[in-house]
């Protein structure tokens, strides 16, 4: 059965006939479209849509990209990512523009179809348990990005992901930062593994819960983490501060909306003079403390020192729309953009 969401000429940003790589709207739209291309690649595979009937190529060819490699999960043979290379010969506007990416490595999120749902839900569970970095999908993605970065050390490389795919992109990018390589990263609706406090309408209640949560998290960190580990944790977190991924959040999506409060509360605590408490809380989560207490390996991948946060404050049709990738290339978005830097 054909879905309109897969058809570029119906649902894609066909108005972007020329891409200005210095324009944030254009950059965001292209990155989101290439993530959508990965979704469609997998649906093409599942529905056995092959050339010339495949829908996926339209999503990258419109922007003059070539598909270099599909990233395939070794557990179920589903396509979860792809490496795209910009064809400079057919994209003249990139000739002298250093903002144009040479490569874009994109990762899709969960697909609730029979061929992919079992593996994707298993990885969603790993995500909640802060153990996505232990899975083979992460290892495949990590190796693919390392290979491109080492083969083309002076090229501009973008990472992009949606939902589960954005969690994968965060983990890959964090590891690349530790090697000294900062990649432009586009994270669409990245899950925040915490209670959805941002959805509480009463600001006083929300504020009180956040303060209590910070105190509890900081206290647990002091009690459970050995003293000698704390400077290492601080150094590791601070090292990531120079990398500022682009976060795209819809407040009506409870899976990612907590990022809004996460950064806003950090600023409020600094203004209250409680910055030292919030620094501990920013680097740790209650879930992370719990998993460490029971002896399970855990890495709070979703806690970011710095970010360029873009919030879609326009009306949302429903949760499905608020969490969807398609909203991010619309031409009439109402966005609020803020830069958050960890010092």
Detailed description of the structure:
- The mean pLDDT is 87.
- The chain has helices at 8-11, 24-46, 57-61, 117-128, 136-151, 164-178, 203-224, 230-239, 258-271, 275-283, 286-293, 319-323; strands at residues 65-72, 79-86, 103-107, 157-162, 184-188, 246-249, 307-312, 335-340.
- The protein is α/β, with parallel strands linked by helices.
- The protein has 12 helices and 8 strands.
- It starts with 7 loop residues before the first helix and ends with a strand.
- It has an 8-stranded mixed beta sheet, sandwiched between helices.
- Helices cover 42% and strands 14% of the residues.
List keywords for this structure.
globular, 343 residues, 42% helix, alpha/beta, 8 strands, 14% strand, 12 helices, eight-stranded mixed β-sheet, single chain
């Amino acid at each position: 059965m054909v879905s309109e969401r897969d058809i570029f000429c119906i649902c894609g940003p066909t108005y972007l006939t020329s891409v200005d790589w210095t324009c944030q709207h254009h950059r965001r739209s292209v990155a989101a479209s290439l993530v959508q291309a990965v979704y469609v690649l997998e649906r093409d595979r599942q529905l056995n849509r092959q050339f010339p009937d495949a829908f996926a190529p339209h999503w990258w060819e419109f922007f003059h990209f070539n598909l270099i490699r599909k990233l395939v999960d070794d557990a179920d043979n589903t396509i979860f990512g792809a490496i795209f290379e910009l064809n400079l010969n057919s994209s003249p506007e990139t000739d002298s523009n250093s903002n144009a990416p040479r490569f874009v490595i994109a990762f899709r999120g969960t697909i609730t179809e029979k061929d992919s749902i079992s593996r994707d839900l298993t990885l969603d569970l790993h995500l909640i348990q802060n153990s996505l970095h232990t899975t083979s999908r992460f290892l495949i993605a990590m190796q693919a990005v390392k290979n491109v970065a080492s083969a083309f050390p002076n090229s501009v490389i973008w990472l992009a992901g949606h939902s589960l795919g954005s969690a994968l992109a965060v983990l890959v990018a964090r590891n690349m930062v530790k090697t000294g390589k900062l990649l432009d990263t586009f994270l669409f609706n990245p899950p925040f593994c915490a209670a959805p406090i941002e959805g509480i309408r009463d600001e006083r209640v929300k504020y009180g819960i956040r303060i209590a949560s910070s105190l509890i998290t900081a206290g647990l960190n002091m009690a459970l983490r050995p003293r000698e580990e704390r400077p290492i944790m601080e150094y590791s977190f601070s090292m990531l501060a120079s990398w500022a991924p682009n976060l795209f959040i819809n407040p009506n999506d409870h899976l990612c909306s907590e990022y809004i409060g996460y950064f806003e509360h950090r600023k409020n605590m600094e203004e209250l003079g409680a910055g030292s408490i919030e620094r501990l809380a920013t680097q740790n989560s209650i879930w992370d403390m719990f998993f460490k207490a029971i002896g399970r390996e855990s890495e709070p991948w979703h806690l970011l020192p710095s970010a360029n946060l873009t919030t879609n404050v326009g009306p949302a049709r429903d949760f499905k729309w608020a969490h969807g990738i398609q909203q991010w290339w619309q031409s009439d978005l109402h966005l609020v953009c803020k830069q958050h830097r960890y010092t």
